[in-house]
């Protein structure tokens, strides 16, 4: 299994996200949701905590993470310290574009 360790982008722009993330324990499961209709980045991927939209996967990782999701290789996403996450996926590298 491979892993990205990164921050959650845009937390400060999401009302209540900062406080919500601070209240979560390390290891809490989060969900990634592609947002292909995002007017600023067609590769944007939302980070969700239950029904709460807390931020985005950073732009420099979003396209590769999107490919991982599309290929069915995403295993899990977990909160780490602060506003950081671990994105776990199968394989030796992110999938190549089809």
Q: Characteristics of this structure?
A:
single chain, 98 residues, alpha+beta, three-stranded antiparallel β-sheet, 2 helices, 19% helix, globular
Task: Offer a quick outline of the entry.
The chain has 98 residues and is of the alpha+beta class.
Stretches where pLDDT is under 50 for at least 5 consecutive residues are: none
Record the strand order, biggest sheet: 1-6-5
Outline, from the CA principal axes? globular
Structural class: alpha+beta
Please describe the biggest sheet, giving its number of strands, its sense, and whether it closes into a barrel.
3 strands, antiparallel
Q: Please tally the β strands and state the result.
A: 6
Query: Count of helical segments?
Result: 2
In which range does the helix fraction lie? 10-25%
Rounded average pLDDT: 92
Residues in β-strands, percent: 25-35%
Query: What value does the Rg take, in angstroms?
Result: 13 Å
